[in-house]
What does this fold into?
Amino acid sequence: MNYDTELRRHNELLRRAAAVRPGDHVLDVGCGAGLTTREAARAARDGSTLGVDTSEPAIERARSQAAGLGNVAFEVGDAQVHPFPAARFDLAISRFGTMFFGDPVAAFTNIGRALRPGGRLVMMVWQAAGLNQWNVALTEALGPTDGRGAFSLGDPAKVEEILTAAGFGGVGLEEVREQLCFGPDLPSALDWVSGFTSTIEALRKPGAKERLREMLEAHLTDDGVWFDSRAWIVTAHRD
It folds into this structure.
């Protein structure tokens, strides 16, 4: 089980929305192990892709999995302050990689500088915490966790305000209602969720692991442990 498997249905929707063109130069923000970066590189066959993530282990995995793709590169860095080349990219994409900036206006301003004039931003972010069944279920089972920053871009008005202040125009949000998978079976799901940064501390409390198991079992189907979710696909362009 991994993050790409959990979000496989979301990934397809983001890929369609990004609509990478053959000559595009693409920046992937918060690329993780690089699946979205590699997919963009294959579509941008006459262009290039750069994946950036703060996790060095994730970037190491991304590099190893991209062997053979000549138009893709990966760098460890925080997109809020990373020294991207100015006006280099036609498109910036992100799959749930933009919600944790300490200063989101500064971060999107920095990303915007890396885009050519008119360059596009296409990112997927979570809607409000209470609209995401997976988060509600985890909270009911374990109590509040430290993952609340994941929903920092859930308010459309706030997103538009941030992006406008960062120099973007044409801000649009498309609702995504899709299921995510925590594992193909109960043991896999329990192992996967137990490793979340947001659940590790909560699972140290007495009875927490048992409550988590019961909650996951309630969502077990014939083809895995599934939860409803709500997200936004946010689009904008650099002015």
About this structure: Residues 3-128+149-180+229-238 form a domain with the Rossmann fold fold (CATH 3.40.50.150).
